[in-house]
Amino acid sequence: MVQDVNPGTILMGAQLRLLPPSLPFRFFLAAAVFHFFFWVTIGFSYEDVAGFTGGPGPILSAIHVLTLGVFAMTIMGAASQLTPVATGLAHRSLWPTQAAWWLFLPGTLIFFTGLNLSDRWIMHGGGMLAGLALLIFGFSLADLLRRSKKLKIPVRFAWLSLVSLLALVILGLLLLEDFVHGFLPDHQAIATSHLILAVFGFMGMLLMGFSNILVPMFALSKSPPACNQQIALWLAPTGLFLAVAGVMANVEELIAVAVLAGLLSVLLHIQGMLWCLKTGMRKNLGLSFVVVKAGWIMLVVSLIAGGLQAFDRLGEQGPALFGAIILIGWLMTFLLGILQRIVPFLAAMNMSKKTKKPPRLSELGDETTLKSHAICHGLAFVLVTGGIAMDQSLPILIGAVIGGIGAVLFAWYIVSVARSFMAYHQDVDAVPAPTESES
Ligand code: HEM
């Protein structure tokens, strides 16, 4: 069985559905800056990382600098641009994406400050602004998904992600209220459900859906055979539902079944993605896909770690260890791999003017910085998780410094692409367009 659209053909006519480049790029640039600030916040509170078990303070702030500032920013920028390209549908209006940006940036900054200072009003104000921005983004994406008649598997994954987004924002706001009024019967269970819905629901489902479009598109392959992806599509939400039910009802057996369903779903998904890489016409996908593959391995490790943590097998530092594995090991690795691929890709798509040949993707930015970033990221992850596992804070501090250096290098790459983009357009504007007889 094959999927309904060959993503290789998606690029035909994609130029017509490009947003003004500054719109997605501001999200990507913000993500690169927050990436650096994540490591700075970890560096400043390195002594509290290994023992973190929840509650407001610098570590919860750092978690949201990463999840909202880096992950959600990347997703918002990428989904607003790639969904119209993939579905062939234009946004009805750009104001929801603009509004989401103008609410999300200050909202997240206020939220991080409030969490850091454990200040009730600042935390609430920021959380509500950030939550509102996420919901506006969700509605504009839902409008495109509702009108889409093709790409059924990715679209269904995206719907599951949006349902999770709604639930995670509601639970996040309830948790904030509970810090003050303490009305929730089981705060910890709601916090864990928020985590599961945010990480595996909102992020995981959207990434599985979009990978079904992006990986074939970059590898120039057909879509992965539909049968396994359909099974993955059923298993993933089943696992998600059982995990939340198991946590809320405190039934470990349910969580174990959820982890198995999640693992099977993820293995089928990864098998489909590897099939695309194997059969695709473009064999050399560069460093970005080495990083993406590392992200896939860490996704499997994350699910196993989640199962072990549910059975208290990760030791005293279990919550922090599990958090570092899913957030830094899986999501950060995967999203930075994808980001370093889509930023030059989208820049190049916005550079094909008739008067000047656009540069090659590899010429757009300084790729040597990406290699150094990948090494720094890997080292930082090993040092931070090692430090947490051994309950030693020094490796965490060293990891944060190395991660911060990597983040500067990564941001420099994004800036270098933006500079090539601007230089190209300055050149194009300086050269008059050829007349009809010349062309
Ligand atoms: C506006 C949106 C959000 C709000 C208001 C919010 C709020 C909160 C609150 C209040 C907690 C504290 C739970 C506790 O330890 O007592 C929390 C924990 C957490 N949140 Fe969020 N959050 C939001 C979005 C997200 C997103 C998008 C992600 C990930 C993609 C995320 C990931 C996490 C994680 C990993 C934790 C740690 C959970 C734990 O301690 O077990 N959050 N969030």
CATH superfamily label: Cytochrome c oxidase-like, subunit I domain
* SS strand fraction: under 5%
- The helical percent reads over 70%
User: Sheet with the most strands?
Assistant: none
Please count the helical segments.
14
What is the helix/strand order? HHHHHHHHHHHHHH
Q: Could you give the count of β-strands? A: 0
Query: Gap between N and C termini, in Å?
Result: 45 Å
Question: Poorly predicted ranges (pLDDT <50, ≥5 residues)?
Answer: none
Number of domains: 1
CATH topology: Cytochrome C Oxidase, Chain A
Bound molecules: protoporphyrin IX containing FE
What would CATH call the class? Mainly Alpha
Characterization of this structure:
There is one protein chain. The termini are far apart. This protein has helices at residues 22-44, 46-49, 58-87, 95-117, 120-147, 152-181, 187-219, 226-249, 252-279, 286-310, 318-349, 361-364, 367-390, 393-430. The protein is mainly alpha-helical. Helix content is 79%, strand content 0%. The chain binds protoporphyrin IX containing FE (HEM). Residues 54-55, 60, 63-64, 67-68, 71-72, 127, 130-131, 134, 168-169, 172-173, 175-176, 187, 191-192, 194-195, 198-199, 202-203 line the site of protoporphyrin IX containing FE.
Concise account of the structure shown:
The chain is mainly alpha-helical and 439 residues long. The chain contains 14 helices and no strands.
Topology record:
Elements (H helix, E strand, L loop, with lengths): L21 H23 L1 H4 L8 H30 L7 H23 L2 H28 L4 H30 L5 H33 L6 H24 L2 H28 L6 H25 L7 H32 L11 H4 L2 H24 L2 H38 L9
The structure holds protoporphyrin IX containing FE.
Protoporphyrin IX containing FE binds next to helix 3, helix 5, helix 6 and helix 7.
